[in-house]
Amino acid sequence: MHQQQTQPKMAHHPSLVSYGSKAISRYQASLNNLDADVGFHARTLLLFTCDQILDTVIPGTAFGVLAALSGPTLDLPAQWTLSILPRIPQVSLWLWLVVLQFCVQNQRSEGSVAEDSINKPWRPITSGRMTSEQAGKLLGATNIIASALSYQLNVMPIFIVYMFLITAYNDYGGGNKSGVVRNLFCGAGFSCYFSGALSIVIGPDAVMSSAAWKWTVIIAFGILATTIQAQEFRDEAGDKARGRRTLVTELGRKLALWTVFVTVAFWSIYTPLGFFAGGWKTALLPVVFGGALLATTSQAYRNGNNKLDRKMYKMWCLWMLGFCPLPFLARVLA
């Protein structure tokens, strides 16, 4: 009699344990799937922008921070380092978002997909991680987020100009029809990156001085716009297949390399010693990095191959980064 009372209770325990075990397994599986989805999408966004982190986000952040710290050199208000530190993530996030906006808009066209199949087959659309239609939806979301952040950080006028430039560049052939025009578009785009970064770092209560604007123009329309062809040798095959006109495809490889020799040598010396009227200590970074870039360019001139072209691109990024401390060094070493 006692056993008949206890048997029904014992019969329920296995089913409860089994149900709980299945629920836990389903929960763990959903977490694993969520982690996999988040990781997949994060990697996709990174693949859109990985080159631009090196050539835009890092130097753009350095430009803004070090220019703000230069204070009187660029006629800017003195900034405490501790007041600037919290703004660094804001600058980097803004730069990455507007770069993502450009990259998605640039990479989703049919011509870009064909070019990337030769030059950069790992990019999201070419590799099949995302369709052009999905990229269009991502672009719409990125436009909204970048606009909201630009408004919050008080750089909306710069962002509006930037929107006009990237639309003309990507959707109306501004970057394809002439090597000189392409370089000028790049200079204009980077002037938005650099001026936006500096505006965010100096804070909403300060304004860009004429000296700060002049430095921005020198580095964007001077240094960058006359040397950015250094990164285009690695893409020569895809550019030719697409029919894109760059200084490399227009002038030919040898002559285009000579433009790198001349402009890199000139800016490495003139900017620290002429524009900032500094001494040899001020010139150290541009001259050393410029010398390394010229050495790589010489190798590419004698023994041209894509490996050297990619190295030349990386050295160009490092050389551009070497200019960012100049106003700060001019102040410290004066």
Beta-strand residue fraction:
under 5%
Q: Which of globular, elongated, flat, extended, rod-shaped describes the shape?
A: globular
Secondary-structure class: mainly alpha
Q: First CA to last CA: what distance?
A: 101 Å
Q: How many H/I helical runs?
A: 15
Q: Report the radius of gyration as a whole number of Å.
A: 26 Å
What's the average pLDDT?
A: 90
Number of strands: 0
Q: From N to C, what is the helix and strand string?
A: HHHHHHHHHHHHHHH
Taking the sheet with the most strands, its summary is:
none
| Helical proportion, percent range | over 70%
Segments where pLDDT lies below 50 for 5+ residues?
1-12
Number of domains: 1
Describe this structure in words.
- The chain has 334 residues and is an all-alpha fold.
- The protein has one domain.
- Helices cover 81% and strands 0% of the residues.
- It contains 15 helices and no strands.
- It has helices spanning 2-70, 81-84, 88-107, 110-119, 124-127, 132-152, 156-171, 179-202, 210-227, 236-242, 247-251, 253-275, 280-302, 306-323, 326-332.
- Helix 4 runs antiparallel to helix 10 (236-242), helix 8 runs antiparallel to helix 9 and helix 12 (253-275) runs antiparallel to helix 13.
- The longest helix is centred in the N-terminal third of the chain and has 69 residues, at 2-70.
- The chain starts with a helix and ends with a helix.
Write the layout of secondary structure elements.
Elements: H1 2-70, H2 81-84, H3 88-107, H4 110-119, H5 124-127, H6 132-152, H7 156-171, H8 179-202, H9 210-227, H10 236-242, H11 247-251, H12 253-275, H13 280-302, H14 306-323, H15 326-332
